[in-house]
From TrEMBL:
This protein's name: Probable nicotinate-nucleotide adenylyltransferase
Lineage start: Bacteria, Pseudomonadati, Bacteroidota, Sphingobacteriia, Sphingobacteriales
Entry keyword set: ATP-binding, NAD, Nucleotide-binding, Nucleotidyltransferase, Pyridine nucleotide biosynthesis, Transferase
Family: Belongs to the NadD family.
Pathway: Cofactor biosynthesis; NAD(+) biosynthesis; deamido-NAD(+) from nicotinate D-ribonucleotide: step 1/1
Species of origin: Rhinopithecimicrobium faecis
GO molecular function: ATP binding; nicotinate-nucleotide adenylyltransferase activity
Function summary: Catalyzes the reversible adenylation of nicotinate mononucleotide (NaMN) to nicotinic acid adenine dinucleotide (NaAD).
Domain Cytidyltransferase-like: from-to ranges: 6-164
């Protein structure tokens, strides 16, 4: 049996903030592995700036080329859209009954967690590893017995910031691995 942390996200694009969290969860906690689950469409986000899921997957894979114990997961690609996490959890548990799954999320997502489909069932059946994120109002759910607040380093960087900077022609070196930035440039992503 393995303990797998599921790090769900749009990864539009993946950035250093995501990667530091994934590393911390994979190597500094009791988890055996972290799977980065690329969500085709977050039910609570508009699709305007969302680029195609295959390009987002490619960027995650480029970022993870040299890493052990952190993998990409495309399970939501073939599931109904938008991507409801409870449905994915049930599907993964059926497919991998030998694993114990944990949900990894930033505090920003915990603050809106009560808007998620069947969030009470998620809290009943899964443990949530929640890491602090700068500038987020603390959620009362922090006290829930299924919620574990981790001691993860914090970095105030977001995909929104990166997309905006690229659109404005600014330099974003180090915000994401070089290979990811080269892919963005080659494909002309986030330019308009
Ligand atoms: N800098 C960061 N530090 C910690 N967690 C982060 C950071 N950036 C994103 N996350 C977390 O990663 C998960 C996936 O986030 P997502 O792909 O939406 O990135 P984002 O940077 O928040 O994107 P956007 O700016 O487009 O909303 C979420 O749980 C989010 O809280
Ligand atoms: O299940 C839900 O109702 C639900 C509501 C909002 C967000 N989510 C998921 O939370 C994950 C984080 O999304 P994001 O866009 O902040 O990276 C992503 O996988 C979404 O599909 C899920």
């Amino acid at each position: 049996m393995q303990h797998i942390g599921l790090f769900f996200g749009s990864f539009n694009p993946i950035h250093t903030g995501h990667l530091i969290i994934a590393n911390y969860m994979a190597h500094h906690t009791e988890l055996d592995e972290v799977w980065m689950v690329i969500s085709p469409h977050n039910p609570l986000k508009k699709k305007d700036t969302l680029i195609n899921m295959y390009d987002r997957l490619e960027m995650v894979n480029l970022a993870l080329e040299q890493t052990a114990h952190i993998k990409s997961c495309t399970i939501e690609f073939n599931m109904p859209k938008p991507s409801y996490t409870i449905d994915t959890l049930v599907h993964l548990q059926e497919k991998y009954p030998q694993h114990t799954f944990y949900l990894i999320m930033g505090e920003d997502n915990l603050s809106s967690f009560e808007k998620w489909k069947n969030y009470e069932i998620i809290l009943r059946d899964y443990k949530l590893l929640v890491y602090p994120r700068p500038g987020v109002k603390p959620s009362p759910l922090k006290e829930h017995p299924s919620v574990y607040i981790t001691d993860t380093p914090q970095m105030d960087i977001s995909a929104t910031f990166i997309r905006k900077a690229i659109k404005e022609g600014k330099n974003v070196q180090f915000f994401s691995p070089d290979k990811v930035l080269a892919f963005i440039e080659k494909k002309g992503l986030y330019n308009s």
